[in-house]
Amino acid sequence: VKNGYNAASAVRVMPFEFSTTQAYMLEVGDQYIRIMRDQGQILWTEDPNQASHTFDSYPQPWTDISIGAGQIGFNSGSSALDVYADSNVASGWAQFQFANLSSPEVTHRLTLENQNQATPIMAGVGDVKTINSASFDISALLEQNAGTQTIDFEPSGATQIYVGLVNQNEGSATVDNVILRRKYYEISSPYATADLFGIKHAQSADTMFLTHPSYFPRQLTRTGHQDFDISVVPFVEDTPFANADDYPSVVSFFEGRSIWAATNNEPQAIWMSATVDIYNMLVGDNAASAIKATIRALKVNRIRWLIPLSDLLFGTTGGLWRIGATTTAEPVTPNNVSARQTESEEGSANLQAIGIKNGALFNQFHGQRLMRAQFTFNSAALSGAWEAEDLTILSDHIIG
Fold first, then answer.
1. Residue 156 pLDDT level (bands cut at 50, 70, 90)
2. How far apart are CA 272 and CA 339, in angstroms?
3. Which of 44, 208, 334, 349 could potentially form a cystine with 367 if both were Cys, beta carbons 3.0 to 4.6 Å apart?
4. Which of the 8 DSSP states describes residue 42?
């Protein structure tokens, strides 16, 4: 996608399918991930970084920067903040520094309640402490009438947010329940814009693995609409991915194992975790132990994608390969694993393939053809083979 909420940066859109009824889209941008669902972005309801003021006691640490006879005070009857102005030129001003921003480009939402319809309150946000000039760096003053009102704004690089509540009408404006939170739910991500389109991913239930050759593998987990987390993959045994240039660039799942492949140091190697222990990469001889397999080819065949079918099908820069057991109808084990090149020599571009029916859709090496890999059975010969069909042979314009 050319841009998301920041028009200066491209973003990547990924699916996160938690179940048949819970599906999300991820907007992955420059060191952030936004979560979308039901054709819209998920909003914060309880932001852990939010600040709330209910004025149940004297309104500290709000600062009185009133002009002339204006002043602020605690309304004990309403447990609220009174912002008093003596006249239109003697204004009441209350100011508070709400937040130091960790994500200065994030849209924020300011909510407040004005209890006095006769005296409108004006609210502004800024990133400078000289906020009492009636002009703010981030947005102009916005008049708030009675009831709960909301202001959305973008700090645009600010490192602090100051909120000013202003009464320029004679009398008291009574304000309560002032809340500042981030508007859209999002989490921090390690991935920079330049690396977004090199990310490969694979998901099992509420856990998605993410790989990139320049980053240690990450996992994205979900426990609720506003409870996503991204962290390094917690491998429980000695991992072969500990150092730079040993980070895998491809990931998948197959026969109860997590599958990792194609580091910079070993672009033709595949690592399979222990069976049903997707974080255990300790290679051994037991049937359930982790496995390492390296394909042997006549030329460089960096692995580009992995698709789990009856065999583990994978595309390389030089052709299609498959991994399976050496004996039919048995699972892969350390002593029963075979990597074989198929009859197709169509290389793959560095794009994630898509599993479809009993095959895979992938981009040809130069990115100009959309290919479909599938197993074709020849009844006359009582044998079959994996073949790659060009789906764009009559439609060159689809890929360009």
1. low
2. 13
3. 349
4. P
Is the pLDDT assigned to residue 143 strictly greater than 60? no
* pLDDT at res. 144: 55
pTM comes to: 0.80
Region 62-72 average pLDDT = 82
Contact predicate 52/219, CB 8 Å: no
| DSSP strand pairing (227-232 vs 250-254) | unpaired
Contacts 24+ apart (CB under 8 A), 229-235: 229/187, 230/33, 230/187, 230/188, 230/189, 230/190, 233/209, 233/279, 234/279, 235/279, 235/280, 235/281
User: CATH 2.60.120.260 in the chain, residues?
Assistant: 51-182
Measured between alpha carbons, how far is 398 from 138 in angstroms, rounded to an integer? 44
CA dihedral 35, 37, 40, 44 (to 10 degrees): -50
Model pLDDT for residues 269-283, shown as the tens digit of each residue: 999 999 989 999 999
DSSP 86: S
Contact 365, 347 (CB under 8 A): yes
CATH class of 51-182: mainly beta
